[in-house]
Specification:
mainly alpha
Length: about 90
């Protein structure tokens, strides 16, 4: 589970870097991309037939919280780095 989350975090970082390079509003675009990807990942969980409902509910909650935290951290770091570089000039 830890390795999978690390891999997802690395992929999110690459996606955010690409969006930042090509978008005027990377934080907003990244929020939308993250929401769409999270919804697709939740749909996959809802198709599980043998898993107990409480386990599915826990994993859904965990993915929602993880998405919110990762997106918030990336967008705040991006805002901080863009603010810091423009004020130094």
């Amino acid at each position: 589970m830890i390795f999978a989350n690390g891999a997802y975090l690395a992929i999110a970082g690459v996606v955010f870097a690409i969006i930042s390079r090509f978008s005027r509003r990377p934080a907003r675009v990244f929020w939308w991309v993250a929401i769409v990807v999270m919804l697709f990942s939740l749909l996959q969980l809802l198709t599980l037939e043998d898993a107990p409902n409480d386990t599915i509910a826990f994993v859904i909650a965990m993915r929602i919280v993880a998405t919110i935290v990762v997106v918030a951290v990336f967008t705040r770091l991006a805002e901080g780095s863009s603010t810091g570089s423009s004020s130094a000039a």
